[in-house]
Amino acid sequence: MEHPAVKYVQFEESLLMDGWYLPPEETGMVFKNHGASAGASMAHSHSQMLGTPFVPPSVTTRLNCMKEVFERLGKCSLCEFQSKDILVRETHNFSAIVPFAASYPFEIWIIPRQHSSYFHEIDKDTALDLGSLLRTMLAKLSKQLNDPPFNFMIHSAPFGVSSSCLPYTHWFLQIVPQLSLIGGFEIGSGCYINPVFPEDAAKILWELDC
């Protein structure tokens, strides 16, 4: 029997492929809130999808950073990470890492190893691989951090533009355990204080047997 995480990935992908992203939406966000302090509004586990008729500022900032790296180096920033020190798990299709300059302790990114701008373009086998890896990452976080509240979000390119026009964009799934409250400095500056080095978090998660 397939794990719910695998079915979840296939379901969310199918919604996007079936035209959920038609105008006026310019961007779409697939996300899950687990636990009251992570914003969960219902007791049972659930995920949500929202679209906006504009590109949010944080998305614009991320895309501009990716574009800047691509124009300077001629390579996609997420295709180019090489350090094994931040690797948590690798499959045929994906790498799970603790990103450099992570905003949150034990934050994880699941990144396609093959360059891809849009989440909804993955095929069934890739979706199965992603679901299995997502299940493993959530199990590792639950084991290490005692089932913490968390959010995960799928960051995909804006709709209505072909992948060939966005060679610098690369979709990824971000998992954020909610381990501490966000204070005035973080809200006011947009900068986050992370007391855990990414290499240390990656090593701990790598060594967990899940």
Automatic annotation (TrEMBL):
Pfam families: GalP_UDP_tr_C. SUPFAM superfamilies: HIT-like. InterPro entries: ADP-glucose_phosphorylase (IPR053177), GalP_Utransf_C (IPR005850), HIT-like_sf (IPR036265). GO terms for biological process: galactose metabolic process; positive regulation of cellular response to phosphate starvation. It comes from the Eukaryota. Residues 79-172 form the Galactose-1-phosphate uridyl transferase C-terminal domain. One of its GO terms (molecular function) is ADP binding. PANTHER family: ADP-GLUCOSE PHOSPHORYLASE (PTHR42763:SF2). This is Galactose-1-phosphate uridyl transferase C-terminal domain-containing protein. It comes from Oryza sativa subsp. indica.
